[in-house]
């Protein structure tokens, strides 16, 4: 995209429709006159009285505890300079947008016409009753240093100038990891910092806190090297003046330097300068929009370089969004009186450590990368990684408590992490609980389609995370080639090519032949059939050589179920199999069935399906609440579907009195307890919404889960195949790596439950 088009696109983006990027929205109901009387007069007087009696109740009854002011006077906006407060407003709105989407923090942007320190401080101090925190932005140096110092000293809410500390925190984490990869110790490195503004000074102070020695740091500003002979330096910059006499130019300083940090202007570093640096150099060229040296030039000049920029189109983007939303989130959640050095250092270490952990597949997908991992091109996390809110916010909150600036203590950190994730609409607590359960007793899972990247990537994830021990079926040479190409490492994982496994083929062939010989299958056909990996994998599960089978990524549902039914068969007392989906929604988990197997179940089949699904759901949540759905509510409409559904409920109530189940009912009544209570107070579901929905036929169930998945933003885990003697689970055609991992996790828990049931005294007696 050329620059004229980019300019117009940017102007259109900000002007079309509703001008600007943010708006204020209500957080309470406003639909009725009663709502309005509570929101304003006369009801609003009650919280006013409560706060007047106890000023801390302002956090209880107002938005103060989640409200940050982003404040600027427009004196140092981006690389545009002193363009005034009005011209800074798009940037401040953008900052507010990032606060909201990354940490669910509400923001008012305030652009103030205040040039002097006294004017600025007076205005901001007067705002303390309104806000939970203050984010200073785009204020010129050296004024910004004094403004922040005074506000931190005179206010009792968190204050941070992000231009200084945000870059310092993110680049500090990057520096730690880059030096670790390059084999350098922080207290030994020679560092060059080009730039002496607010960000450069703050970054340098952070590096010293992390272990860099001041005598090993050389700083430059627009007038050259900061040395002790300069008479134009203020006290802040004089702190970084060097006594070295051999450094006059940037090129001089770069010779044998280990680290270059650029916070200055574009294209001031040459390839020759990089060539003169020490072995395994680290270069952070963070000037925006053009770095001090382009990424392409830098990596061409030095193959052993670790290169970071402020740009999103190259690896290792030093982006403040990795820090400020989560630092303020943690500070607000403990009602900190300040953001102190301990909290900033905690953020540095949390960000650095997070980069060393396995990267969620959603992050790989977001950046179109197949296997992102800690190394030269990944020294800090990506901004789209949703783990940042838990890792960084928790670290900051804990540091605030330990350093004595927190006014509110967090005692249940697991609950706090769940709260943080729910702010982003990603509260998958149930799936995390299932994952933890799987890790307690990992099982052997055979993958029937192992010669595909997605399967191999999922296999590595479940192996690395201790969820399962993978067994790979497929062309071994192809599997190894895919692993090499994508830098996957599954160690000594078992790999089987069904065409070559002669000993097991014979045994499995005999087993299939005996089961199917009176159904027209010859021994020769049985041998050909057993080479099919779905049949072979099912035999491995049947013979106890694996605990579960995963397949279906590249085959249709029927072709995957058929081998399982023929080899393994249905469980004792089960008349039919059924399919179920776990739908992870913003309102919590809901189980859907049957969505994949039974097309138009009869009354008896609906009863069997409900019993099967209710039992399966009880593995995942303490008490299933089951609703049988229809287009009718308790006989309000006639027809085949309402009548068969109502009859199925009657039988369930009679045969399974302890099951919480009701119907027939419409979906909105099943999920809305107030609506159900107001209209059908007799329902056995009254009190809480249903968490298990039984559909009257495959069409409605299948349509519902796919609509919810695409339009409703729910995550579908499944299909979970129910009713087989041993665990076989079928993937959706074309499943993502995340979906495969989820299905493997479900399969492991299923295998655990079946193993436990088989070991029970009742099961042993039956045998």
UniProtKB/TrEMBL annotation:
Extract the CDD domains matched here: NAD_bind_2_malic_enz
- A Pfam family of this chain: Malic_M
Q: Which residues form the Malic enzyme NAD-binding domain?
A: 164-401
Q: Where is the Malic enzyme N-terminal domain?
A: 19-152
Region annotated Disordered sits at 1-22
Q: Could you tell me which InterPro entries the record lists for this protein?
A: Aminoacid_DH-like_N_sf, Malate_Decarboxylase, Malic_N_dom, Malic_N_dom_sf, Malic_NAD-bd, Malic_NAD-bd_bact_type, ME_PTA, NAD(P)-bd_dom_sf
Q: Which UniProt keywords apply?
A: Multifunctional enzyme, Oxidoreductase
Concerning its family, UniProt says: In the N-terminal section; belongs to the malic enzymes family. In the C-terminal section; belongs to the phosphate acetyltransferase and butyryltransferase family.
Stated name of the protein: NADP-dependent malic enzyme
The lineage is:
Bacteria, Pseudomonadati, Bacteroidota, Sphingobacteriia, Sphingobacteriales
């Amino acid at each position: 995209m050329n620059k004229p088009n980019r300019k117009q696109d940017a102007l259109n983006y900000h002007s079309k429709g509703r001008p600007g990027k943010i708006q204020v929205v209500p957080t309470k109901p406003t639909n009725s006159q009663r709502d309005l009387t509570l929101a304003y007069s006369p009801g609003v007087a009650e919280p006013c009285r409560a706060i007047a009696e106890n000023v801390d109740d302002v956090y209880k009854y107002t938005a103060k505890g989640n409200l940050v002011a982003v404040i600027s006077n427009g004196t140092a906006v981006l690389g545009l300079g002193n363009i005034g407060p009005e011209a800074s407003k798009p940037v401040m709105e953008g900052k507010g947008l990032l606060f909201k989407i990354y940490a669910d923090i509400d923001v008012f942007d305030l652009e103030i016409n205040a040039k002097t320190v006294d004017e600025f401080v007076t205005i901001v101090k007067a705002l303390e009753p309104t806000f939970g925190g203050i984010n200073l932005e785009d204020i010129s140096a050296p004024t910004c240093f004094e403004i922040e110092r005074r506000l931190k000293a005179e206010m009792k809410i968190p204050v941070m100038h992000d231009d200084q500390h945000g870059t310092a925190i993110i680049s500090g984490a990057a520096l730690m990891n880059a030096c670790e990869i390059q084999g350098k110790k922080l207290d030994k490195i020679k560092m060059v910092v080009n730039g002496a503004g607010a960000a450069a000074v703050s970054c340098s102070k952070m590096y010293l806190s992390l272990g860099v020695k001041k005598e090993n740091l050389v700083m430059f500003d627009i007038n050259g090297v900061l040395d002790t002979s300069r008479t134009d330096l203020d006290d802040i910059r004089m702190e970084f003046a060097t006594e070295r006499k051999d450094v006059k130019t940037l090129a001089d300083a770069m010779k044998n330097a280990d680290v270059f940090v650029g916070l200055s202007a574009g294209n001031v570093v040459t390839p020759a300068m990089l060539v003169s640096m020490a072995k395994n150099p680290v270069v952070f060229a963070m000037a925006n929009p053009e770095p001090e040296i382009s990424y392409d030039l830098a990596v061409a000049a030095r193959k052993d370089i670790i290169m970071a920029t402020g740009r999103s189109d190259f690896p290792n983007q030093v982006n403040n969004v990795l820090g400020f939303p989560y630092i303020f989130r943690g500070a607000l959640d403990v009602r900190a009186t300040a953001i102190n050095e301990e909290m900033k250092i905690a953020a540095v270490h949390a960000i650095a450590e997070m980069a060393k952990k396995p990267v969620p597949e959603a992050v790989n997908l977001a950046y179109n990368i197949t296997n992102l991992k800690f190394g030269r091109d990944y020294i800090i996390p990506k901004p789209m990684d949703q783990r940042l809110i838990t890792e960084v916010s928790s670290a900051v909150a804990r540091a605030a408590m330990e350093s004595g600036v927190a006014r509110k203590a967090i005692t249940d950190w697991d609950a706090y992490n769940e709260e943080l994730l729910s702010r982003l609409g990603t509260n998958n607590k149930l799936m995390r609980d299932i994952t933890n359960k799987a890790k307690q007793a990992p099982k052997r899972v055979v993958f029937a389609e192992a010669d595909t990247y997605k399967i191999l990537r999922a296999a590595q994830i479940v192996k690395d995370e201790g969820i399962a021990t993978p067994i790979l079926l497929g062309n071994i040479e192809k599997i190894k080639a895919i692993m090499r190409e994508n830098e996957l490492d599954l160690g000594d994982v078992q790999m089987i090519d069904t065409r070559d496994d002669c000993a097991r083929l014979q045994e499995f062939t005999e087993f299939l032949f005996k089961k199917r010989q009176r159904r027209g299958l010859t021994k020769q056909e049985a041998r050909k059939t057993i080479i099919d990996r779905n049949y072979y994998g099912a035999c491995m599960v049947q013979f106890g050589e694996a605990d579960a089978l995963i397949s279906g990524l590249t085959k249709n549902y029927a072709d995957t179920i058929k081998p399982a039914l023929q080899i393994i068969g249905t469980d004792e007392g089960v008349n039919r199999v059924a399919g179920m989906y776990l739908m992870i929604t913003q309102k919590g988990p809901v189980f859907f069935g049957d969505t994949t197997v039974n097309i138009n179940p009869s009354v008896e089949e609906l009863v069997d399906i409900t019993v099967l699904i209710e039992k399966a759901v009880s593995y995942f949540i303490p008490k299933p609440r089951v609703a049988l759905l229809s287009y009718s509510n308790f006989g309000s409409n006639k027809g085949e579907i309402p009548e068969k559904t109502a009859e199925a409920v009657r039988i369930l109530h009679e045969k399974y009195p302890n099951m919480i189940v009701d119907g027939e009912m419409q979906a909105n009544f099943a999920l809305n307890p107030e609506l159900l209570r107001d209209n059908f107070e007799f329902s056995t579901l009254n009190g809480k919404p249903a968490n298990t929905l039984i559909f009257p036929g495959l069409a409605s169930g299948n349509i519902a889960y796919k609509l919810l998945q695409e339009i409703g933003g729910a995550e579908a885990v499944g299909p979970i195949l129910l009713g087989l003697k041993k665990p076989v689970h079928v993937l959706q055609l074309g499943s993502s790596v995340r979906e495969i991992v989820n299905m493997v996790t479900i399969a492991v828990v299923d295998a655990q439950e079946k193993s436990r049931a088989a070991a029970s005294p009742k099961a042993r007696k039956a045998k």
